[in-house]
Amino acid sequence: MNTQNLMLIDPHIHMTSRTTDDYERMRQAGIVAIIEPAFWLGQPRTEVGSFKDYYSSLVGWERFRASQFGIKHYCTIGLNSKEANNEALAEQVMELLPLFIYKEGVVGVGEIGYDDQTQAEDKYYRLQLELAKETNMPVQIHTPHRDKKSGTIRSMEVSLEHGIAPDMVIVDHNNEETVKDVLDRGFWAAFTIYPNSKMGNERMVEVVKKYGTERIMINSAADWGISDPLSVPKTASLMLERGISLEDVRKVCYQNALEAFGKSGQMHESDWLTPAAVDQREKFLNSSVLRGGQTPVIGGPDADEGELGSNIVR
Ligand SMILES: [Zn+2]
């Protein structure tokens, strides 16, 4: 990959499911900042306390863990559409959300929207749009994998109904069939790049060639399923290879995500341009990323962006 000198942002990645090796490889490939949307965990939760601890880890341990590898971690907080279908639990989760939305590093309400497009999903989607409106936060929308086109259009129409400006809404998991509808309405169009199926990086190159770079961004979504936390750097690299200009790659793989989620007031380029030194001797609530006998990585405060690896003392 030839993206080491490019700063990259992955605006949708579930690091809770990932290892420290992934963090190391991501940083080496140029990723300086990530956004982790709140989502389900592969199986439904049964207690509100599980949501509380999960949200706490997104603004706590996971944020710390990323910092130990030179990556700035942000998150969006929300009740995902799958679990919105457990209404008794959903009611309790809704009461938690306002407690987390103002925490440091929270850049939006997400990922919310429709899965099976049930009545309960619609109810909690709308309630969370209201929360976003009250708090003036961006919205990160998960679009359904079934009936994608109609679900995507419905997501946008409902958010307009609630008076949310399109430029405050990032519509995720787009494909060739939805991108035009999303861009025409003035929303941000995000694409999740999957390794084998669905939206691959070859197809993404064609999308950028056809639709340009305005309001388009890419992510890996990397989670508990088959996914690749290096999807953004790999796609950036392929775009350059296929003749897309450096400036355009920068927009799709960095600038647009910063602009969209920066509207939260919680995410600034200076966060990673003048980073604190990586010091793996640090602890979060008495825990560090080190295990028995490991030598801490200590990065110089003047580590050049994209070259953290070479500034690391091993
Ligand atoms: Zn997700």
Automatic annotation (TrEMBL):
<comment type="similarity">
    <text>Belongs to the metallo-dependent hydrolases superfamily.</text>
</comment>
<dbReference type="GO" id="GO:0046872">
    <property type="term" value="F:metal ion binding"/>
</dbReference>
<feature type="region of interest" description="Disordered">
    <location>
        <begin position="295"/>
        <end position="314"/>
    </location>
</feature>
<dbReference type="InterPro" id="IPR032466">
    <property type="entry name" value="Metal_Hydrolase"/>
</dbReference>
<keyword id="KW-0479">Metal-binding</keyword>
<dbReference type="InterPro" id="IPR012022">
    <property type="entry name" value="UCP005295"/>
</dbReference>
<dbReference type="GO" id="GO:0016788">
    <property type="term" value="F:hydrolase activity, acting on ester bonds"/>
</dbReference>
<keyword id="KW-0378">Hydrolase</keyword>
<protein>
    <submittedName>
        <fullName>Hydrolase TatD</fullName>
    </submittedName>
</protein>
<dbReference type="Pfam" id="PF01026">
    <property type="entry name" value="TatD_DNase"/>
</dbReference>
<dbReference type="InterPro" id="IPR001130">
    <property type="entry name" value="TatD-like"/>
</dbReference>
